[in-house]
Amino acid sequence: MMPEQERPDPDSTDETSGEETAPERGESPTWSRAVIFGAAALAVLLVGATVGLLIGQSRTGDDEPPTPQAGSVAVGFSQDMSRHHLQAVTMANWAREHSADPEIVQLAFDIASVQQEQVGRMKGWLMLWGQPEEPLGEPMTWMAEPGGHGHGAGGTAVSDDGRMPGMASEEELAELRSLKGEELDVYFLKLMLRHHQGGVDMAQYAYDHSTVQAVRTLAKSMLASQGAEMNTMRGMLAERGSEPLPFP
Fold first, then answer.
1. Each residue of 89-109: pLDDT tens digit?
2. Within 13 A of 137's CA, how many CA atoms are on the CB side?
3. Which of 19-33, 51-65, 73-87, 133-147 holds the top average pLDDT?
4. What pLDDT was estimated at residue 41?
5. How far is the C-alpha of 89 from the C-alpha of 43, rounded, in Å?
6. Which of 111, 68, 71, 107 is nearest to 89 (CA)?
7. Cα separation, 218 vs 50, whole angstroms
8. What are the DUF305 domain coordinates in residue numbering (predicted)?
9. Which residues contact 12 (CB under 8 A, 6 or more apart)?
10. Whether 141 contacts 133, CB under 8 Å
């Protein structure tokens, strides 16, 4: 019978190779323990987040806010302000592509970027609420006081052709597209300043009356950002020797 071969000592060092043998079984390197613990913590967080989401989706208690319905401030604001914003995006994109003034180009880019993102948010809400992107009736009726019709808190009325306050007419948009140079820059500033002014009542009404916190937060953000832009545009018009259009 062959003699049993002597097993190597796992704690010994191979003197011939100069390499250390693996650590004892059950003793992981420090970095391995850190990775394992980090992964375990991440797994716990993911499980907790998933459970919380499932619980939130299944709750039907009285403390759950109801889904906004047609005619509500949340739905009306999202529908009307989206349409209002999209005209601003159209004007801003035209000015950005046709102006030679870097200051105008930057302002137009900022306005188009911010308002396009806000439109995406509002249209996303409407989809989640099961509401159409366009109002089924006349705009701004969600702002009407009892007995009133289609006007905001500041008394700014919808025009005969259905334009909300501050929105440019088709003739004004055509004139904007026909201009070049400083004439284009000045007319763009005038139209956009009036456009911003026209959206103030809607944003303020939504902030004051909506029961949906996300809508109130967005409306507050609009009031702050567009208020700053209005001051900027007034200054830019003055620098170019011009004045704002009458409003309302």
1. 999 999 999 999 999 999 999
2. 10
3. 73-87
4. 42
5. 43
6. 111
7. 27
8. 75-237
9. 21
10. no
Whether 25 maps to a domain, the answer reads: no
Rg of the chain over Cα atoms, rounded to whole angstroms, equals 31
What CATH number is attached to the domain comprising 113? 1.20.1260.10
Residue 19: its pLDDT value, please? 43
Angle between helices 213-239 and 181-209 (to 10 degrees): 150
Residue numbers of the domain that contains 140: 73-239
Asked whether 103 and 77 are in contact (CB, 8 A), the reply is no
**Residue 220 included in any domain:** yes
- Number of structural domains in the chain: 1
* Stated pTM of the model: 0.72
56, two tokens: 């939130």
Is 43 among the domain residues?
Answer: no
Whether the Cβ atoms of residue 118 and residue 239 lie closer than 8 Å to each other: no
Q: Are 94 and 176 in contact (CB under 8 A)?
A: yes
Residue 92 belongs to some domain of the structure: yes
Question: What tokens does 74 get?
Answer: 């949340």
Q: How many CB atoms lie within 10 A of CB 21?
A: 13
